[in-house]
TrEMBL record:
UniProt entry keywords in alphabetical sequence: NADP, Oxidoreductase
PROSITE patterns from the UniProt entry: ALDOKETO_REDUCTASE_2, ALDOKETO_REDUCTASE_3
Xref: Gene3D superfamilies: NADP-dependent oxidoreductase domain
NADP-dependent oxidoreductase domain ranges (all copies): 19-262
A Pfam family per the record: Aldo_ket_red
Protein name (Swiss-Prot/TrEMBL): Aldo/keto reductase
Length: 275
């Protein structure tokens, strides 16, 4: 892990950057355009958005204005719950692609496991993947039982499962299952919406390495082998979040951060959501 250009090879051979920019709750228009442009200018290669974030147009505009070749940027978007089902998924994908102003997506995810619908959605995503409109397909917020259910009928194994993951929610069971299936794991809310940054263990390590608490957590993400997409709308923070390649936590330090786990969520429970 030497730079922002470092990638993980997904189970279908596609290479995905290990560290990217998330744009959840980033307002469409100037705010998201600036965030994405600052990230790309600084060397970020991966941008993660979703239909539900309502900022795909701004993300697409920023990519266009950045002047970087399309194939040098890894773009992820997600299928929203209200758009699940076979035909609905095909339609929602085209809507996202048009908003982004792109010819293809690098990664498309089912945002949440909507009961009775995610299998039909997956069939549609397999079609889009086989038609070459998406380089890779995956899921988000899937628990082990959702994955087991999906894999019973899936012709294509998801490349990734994007889940809430941070030192208070280390998701050992899901990570272990995904590893056995060759499914990569990606963290959303890796900084626990800022709540994790006051933890004494993390603050001590930040002092030791002359880093920010956020940089310590992002480095922990990378060292436990997951993809991570910290979000920020501030240029200096976007730069800081990427400055994690000039130090390495010891095995003991990684373990001490993992030991903070309390199975505590800041986001919705994938087994109990109503949206």
């Amino acid at each position: 892990m030497n730079s922002l250009q470092d990638t993980i090879q997904l189970n279908n051979g596609v290479h995905m950057p290990r560290l990217g920019l998330g744009v959840f709750k980033v307002e469409d228009g100037e705010e998201v355009i600036n965030s994405v442009k600052w990230a790309i200018e600084h060397g970020y290669k991966s941008i993660d958005t979703a239909a539900a974030y309502q900022n795909e147009e701004g993300v697409g505009q920023a990519i266009k204005e950045s002047g970087v070749n399309r194939e040098d940027i890894f773009v992820t978007s997600k299928l929203w719950n209200a758009d699940q089902g076979y035909e609905e998924t095909l339609e929602a994908f085209e809507t996202s692609l048009n908003k982004l102003g792109l010819d293809y997506l690098d990664l498309y995810l089912i945002h949440w496991p909507v009961e009775g619908k995610y299998k039909d959605s997956w069939k549609a995503m397999e079609k889009l993947y086989n038609d070459g409109k998406i380089k890779a397909i995956g899921v988000s917020n899937f628990q082990v039982h959702h994955l087991e259910d999906l894999l019973q009928d899936a012709a294509v194994t998801p490349v990734i499962n994007q889940i809430e993951l941070h030192p208070k929610l280390t998701q050992e069971q899901v990570r272990s299952f995904c590893e056995k299936q060759g499914i990569a794991v990606e963290a959303w809310s890796p900084l626990m919406q800022g709540q994790i940054l006051e933890e004494p263990v993390i603050k001590e390590l930040a002092e030791k390495y002359n880093k920010t608490a956020a940089q310590i957590v992002i480095r922990w993400d990378l060292q436990i082998g997951i993809v991570t997409i910290p979000k920020s709308t501030k240029q200096h923070r976007i730069h800081q979040n990427a400055d994690v390649f000039d130090f390495e936590l010891t095995k003991e330090e990684v373990a001490s951060i993992s030991a903070l786990n309390e199975d505590h969520r800041v986001g919705p429970d994938p087994d109990n959501f109503d949206f």
